[in-house]
Amino acid sequence: MALVAAFFVGALFVVGLAFGGMLQPQKIVAFLDVTGDWDPSLAFVLGGAVTTYFVAFRLIRRREAPVFDKRFRVPTSRDITGRLVVGAAIFGAGWGLAGWCPGPALASLPTLSLPVAAFVVAMFAGLVLAARFDRSLDSGWLSRLSKRPSSHGPSTQPQPS
To answer: Alpha helices of 20-159 — where are they, by DSSP H?
Structure first.
């Protein structure tokens, strides 16, 4: 039953992406081009999504447990790490340059568009490369950035031994 629910939630997500214009990379690029032909309509899509999430999250968290699990699995760490910053920068650069982020790109794969396919292949190649070089990242400068104390209190993430 959980898989059926996940499928329908994913389908609803894709419909929302399509309705909001998030499957059109030119709309994303126009929103990010604040010095050129700026299209502010994406701000309303993002605002609607944040507002919906804000309300729904608070209503759902009033429940004892989720419908298809024994407990909620919500991240507790509020640390801003080097990995988080670098990952966000890579995500933002990819989104701004290509006009795609992972969800809309995967939702657009059935169009058989060459740019979409190229983006998805590059995205998966990046995932493979990141996993392959994970050990070198752990021992390098990024790891040292990640281990700095946070102003948000102690980290709840387990530290590597």
So the answer is: 25-32, 41-60, 82-98, 102-108, 114-132, 134-139, 141-146
For residue 102, is it within any domain? yes
Q: Which range of residues forms the domain containing residue 12?
A: 2-60
* Length of the chain counted residue by residue: 161
Residue 157: Cβ within 10 Å count: 12
Shared domain for 55 and 100, answered yes or no, is no
Q: Which two tokens stand for residue 125?
A: 């190649």
Count of domains observed in the chain: 2
Residue 152, in any domain of the structure: no
| Global confidence as pTM | 0.62
Distance CA 154, CA 148 (A): 11
116-121 — which CB contacts under 8 Å span 24+ positions?
A: 119/94
Q: Compute and round to an integer the Cα radius of gyration of the chain.
A: 19
Q: What is the pLDDT of residues 54-100, one digit of tens each?
A: 999 899 889 988 888 888 888 888 888 887 888 889 888 888 888 88
Are both 54 and 92 inside the same structural domain? no
